[in-house]
Every structure is written in structure tokens, then in C-alpha cells.
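Ticket #4471: structure output looks truncated?

Reporter: J.K.
Steps to reproduce: submitted the chain below (254 residues) through the standard prediction queue, then opened the result file.
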Amino acid sequence: MSSRLELFNALPRQGPGSDLATASALAFAKYIPEHPRILDIGCGTGSQTLALARLTGGRITAVDISQAFLDTLARRAKNLGVASQVSTLRCSMDALDLPDDEFDLVWCEGAIYNVGFKRGLRALRRFLKPGGFLAVTELVWFTPDPPEPALRFWSAAYPPITTVDENVGYIEAAGYSLIHHFSLPASAWWDDYYGPLERQIEKLRSRQWPATEDLAFLDENQEEIELYRSYSECYGYEFFVMQKPQDARVHDGS
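Returned output as attached by the reporter:
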């Protein structure tokens, strides 16, 4: 197993989030049909997938590039009795070959950064039925003047990071109506992500990994944790819920 998979596959989540945040965002997707069709992009091991299955009774297509993550999700879904609601698809989010206007709800927690927020909004729009909802989390600055250590780290790790207001502008430019947005609390970073991640880093260090690149990978993740510990008031994840217009036609993603 690769160092990345060994570090992240054992975690409840592969990014910040919580069942409460998922449920709160879902509450703003008004008037979705009973048993909706849902596309969960970058699902990881599927904590939000399973929450959506329980909350909606819908049929979910869960997409991730990692087969190991998808296998873990499938086991979790079976254990929770929702396996019949969840189908998995191994695919990069920028190479999806799915029908247009197919889904009532497209979900993407902590993964749209893989293609960039602006591009991702436009690319995912075509999969939504007219009137369907898109819910995504995106890393944002909470302050116009972030401290230098945070600015240096995130400018290298995720150059497109910007403010909530700028992302609202991107949403409108991509042809959506913004329904609601809210910031994830610190607990959504620590409880199911950074806390378990830090413990997993310590566990793997105790095994004395021989490869320099593996140890560097652990160091990079610990650095990210320490940065959030120091500067959580300056940046975080924002949950955006938006709607494709009822009269929308297939968008070409350009």
C-alpha cells in the first residue's frame, strides 16, 4: 500500500467535515425528490456518502480515483445496511463520462480543489438536472491579510485559494443561484480528520519508515496540522450550496 493510502485509508474522513455539516448543507437543498439521484465526487471512504444515504434514502453514485477508498466505502455501506443505495465508480473527477442532466444533487466535500473551484463549478453543472443542487466545500481565506506562514503554505499547496466573496462571484458567473453558505467549525477539522490523522502519523513514525520520501510525506501533513493549530481563525472550509436554474440547458463546461 502506498504511503498516502496507508496514512489516509484508516481515517474516518480524508478531509475536514462532519455528519452535522453534511446534514446542515443538505437542509438547504429544498424540494429535492424523494429518493433522489446523487453524485458524490471525490467520496474518499465515504462518511458523507453514508450520511446522505441515511438522510435521503437516495441512490448514490460515489466517485473516487482510489480503489482502496471505494472498497472501504463499500464495506462500510454493507455494514450499515445501505449497500443497495450506493454504487462506486473509480474515475478522476476531471474525466467523468456520465449522462447530462442526470442527478438531483451533486455533492463534493473537500475534493473540488483537485480541478480548481472555478473549473469544477462549470464541469459539474452539466450533470445536474435543471433545478438540481450542487453542494461543495472549498478552502478559503477568512481574512484579506492572512499571516505570512499561512499565506506561504497555502499559496504553494493550493494557489487558487481566495476569499468567500470571490468564490460567491465564481458561483454566479458559472450560472448558479447561491442558496446558502457557512463555515465549517474547528470541530469539523479535528474530530474526524486532523485528530485521527495526527494519531496515524505518530503510529507510522513508530514503525521507522525507511524511505526518505515517506518520512517527508508525514512531515508535510504534520506541518499542515500545526499550521491550522496556529492560524485556524484565518482560513478554513466554506460549505456552498447552489442551484442550477430550472430553465437551464446543458452547459458545455467551458
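Triage note (M.O.): checked the attachment and the full C-alpha cell line is present. The chain has one domain: 16-186+234-243.
Status: closed, working as intended.
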